[in-house]
Amino acid sequence: MTTVSARGTVQVENLTQIHRSGERTTHALDNISFTIPAGKFVSVVGPSGCGKSSLLMLLVGLAQSTSGELRVAGRPVAGPDPARIGVVFQEANLFPWLTARKNVEFPLMIRNMSVKERETKARDALELVGLDEFGDRYPHELSGGMRQRVSIARGIVQDPDVLMMDEPFAALDEQTRMVMGDELLRIWERTGKTVVFVTHSLTEAIYLSDHVLVLSARPGRIIDRIDIDLPRPRTFELTSSAEFIQIRNRIWEQIRTA
Questions:
Q1: What distance lies between CA 190 and its chain's CA centroid?
Q2: Three-state secondary-structure class, residue 70
Q3: 177 and 219 co-located in one domain
Q4: Burial letters for 197-226: b for 16+ Cβ neighbours within 10 Å, e otherwise?
Q5: pTM here?
Q6: How do residues 138-154 score in pLDDT, each as one tens digit?
Q7: Which of 45, 140, 227, 253 has the greatest number of CB atoms lying within 10 Å of its CB?
């Protein structure tokens, strides 16, 4: 693999993952290769069980591939590295006994950062996600969308090169999901971070992304990479345009027949 040192660049080459448990073997991913330039927003879609989440677990260092190479900013991913690779999951997974601010501070506490520095960073992260006035609230006092914003703040508080997101809005109602998509685009545009976004929603993938990677049914292989050349900033009206619908139909037909 020819490495690229730019912060935020993601390189995957010939990535394969096979799970073995006793006599049972599951071929999750097969020979996946792609490169994401720094600062791009890329979504991953595919049929249920195609290995989208398995791919994300590899990208964040929470699983190991059977073969292949994976690098972020030219360096191999050998394990979790939240200072370089932030992650946001479907569930916010906040500590219920900690305030929003303390939840965001938590990864900085693990690094033994000074109280003053981590408070400043947590405050800045909450301001970025629009929750600067809710830092003293506990998770049960926040809506589902607000809890996910706290989770995003926690994912970016260490200023990682890349933000990996595994269906972060799947548990939200449709209206909140659209609002959170717009909020995520605002955060992305302001920070310039690379985002890798796993989703079941084709509309969400097209609306948010610069590129969409389409995976086949298991074992997951990349069957298409679609450049989303729709103008930014994007608005909800764009989702009813002929070009948007054409892209969605193209992806749906590939997934339907994968």
A1: 16
A2: strand
A3: yes
A4: bbbebbbbbbbbbbbbbbbbbbbbbbbbeb
A5: 0.92
A6: 999 999 999 999 999 99
A7: 45
